[in-house]
Amino acid sequence: MNKNIYMDNAATTPMKKEVLDAMIPYYTEKFGNPSSIYAQGREAKKALDESRDKVAKILGATDKEIFFTSGGSESDNWAIKGACYANKNKGNHIITTKIEHHAVLHACEYLERNGFDVTYLDVDEYGMINIDDLKNAITDKTILITIMFANNEVGTIQPIKEIGKIAKDNDILFHTDAVQAVGNIRIDVEELNIDLLSLSAHKFYGPKGIGALYIKKGTKVHPYIHGGAQERNKRAGTENVASVVGLKKALELAYENLDEHNNKLKRLRDKLINDITNNISHTKLNGHPEKRLPGNVNISMKYIEGESLLLSLDMVNIAASSGSACTSGSLDPSHVLLAMGLSHGVAHGSLRLSLGDFNTEEEVDYVVENLIEIVARLRKMSPLFENIKEEE
Ligand SMILES: *Cc1c(COP(=O)(O)O)cnc(C)c1O
Predict the structure, then answer these.
(1) Which residues of the chain form beta strands (DSSP E)?
(2) What residues form DSSP beta bridges with 199?
(3) Which residue has the least CA distance to atom 3 on ligand 1?
């Protein structure tokens, strides 16, 4: 197999052709500014309005509750900072978890430096929060609970409905970073008692640099970008019409084919997990055995260095990701795996394979075959593994 095998769909997904086709006219003949009153402007405005309607319907929201942003990171920052500053007369306490995406964690840390208090909830060995811990963390100063829907590294899905109910019963706002969940899980914001929800198109076969924030009607949130009156005075700047159309198209396709997509991904996921853990010794599945995203595989290969593993996989044209924050050039092990109780060593040797709509069973076989060889070769060179073998 000499083509590239892409198994890093949690990092980003390739865009579907239908999505690109839907976008192109808004770069060319339908290029108008939605704020202009002449025909080209009205055409762009219509596309924007229709997209907002469609996105709202899919999430169980209304069009006035959907705000387009530049992606997941912006939506998270806006939701958290905007809600906290708008509600600081009520209190200054935020509850989140230790396993959030950095867009949430670093926004919370920023607020800590600016007079807010943050509780970072622990998770169990499966990456799941404890509902009693959440209840116990609530004080009369708590104004926001921000807990991710599904984790990007280990795929664990949190009990969002229960969390939403607790937030509602205590009159606290609930934000969820649903960037990994949208396109994989059916979401009704009303039923789940969600006040703020972040999503990002490039995680479900849409374009990069476009996302949305759902803000429940009546929720006090400060504007994020000051300027023109776009996005109902809350997020200024000429709208990214083509990308909004792409986001809408990608979201529609994702939910039209949700069952098919989930069944296929789960089948490939379970095959990958079984084939790897049955054929390679000293492995451990990270994340929840059942409550996990359909395309997520995260396995620690003990006595192996994640970076070497990724480089070896790259040499046979397999794109995957590991348990260290290699994006920042650092070798710090993942904060998510550490919060789940893994040692630094084991966290370092973890591999994330995230499946998507374009992966095939043939590719899964190719990955497993190569992984068996690579792991054997790397362990042969590892003094740590030699000692282990002697002990056994
Ligand atoms: C990718 C991701 C983000 C960031 O989204 P961008 O659109 O890349 O800014 C935030 N949260 C989670 C859980 C993600 O997976």
Answers:
(1) 5-6, 66-69, 93-97, 117-121, 142-146, 173-177, 196-200, 211-215, 283-285, 296-301, 318-319, 321-322, 350-354
(2) 212
(3) 72
pLDDT in tens, the chain (392 residues): 658 999 999 999 999 999 999 999 999 999 999 999 999 999 999 999 999 999 999 999 999 999 999 999 999 999 999 999 999 999 999 999 999 999 999 999 999 999 999 999 999 999 999 999 999 999 999 999 999 999 999 999 999 999 999 999 999 999 999 999 999 999 999 999 999 999 999 999 999 999 999 999 999 999 999 999 999 999 999 999 999 999 999 999 999 999 999 999 999 999 999 999 999 999 999 999 999 999 999 999 999 989 999 999 999 999 999 876 555 456 789 999 999 999 998 999 999 999 999 999 999 999 999 999 999 999 998 877 777 766 65
Give the Å distances, CA to CA, from 388 to 68, 277, 349, 382, 383. 53, 18, 16, 10, 9
State the DSSP H helix or E strand holding residue 34, giving kind and residue range, or none if neither. Answer: none
CA of 43 from ligand 1 middle (Å) equals 31
Write the Ramachandran bin of 209: left for phi over 0, alpha for psi from -120 to 50, otherwise beta.
Answer: left
Residue with CA nearest ligand 1 atom 12: 179
* Structural domains of the chain sorted by starting position, each given as residue range(s) with its CATH number in brackets: 5-13+258-391 (3.90.1150.10), 17-256 (3.40.640.10)
Residue 299: name the closest of 332, 257, 342 by CA.
Answer: 342
Pocket of ligand 1 (CB under 6 A): 71-73, 76, 101, 103, 148, 152, 177, 179-180, 200, 202-203, 211
| Euclidean distance between CA atoms 274 and 271, whole angstroms | 5
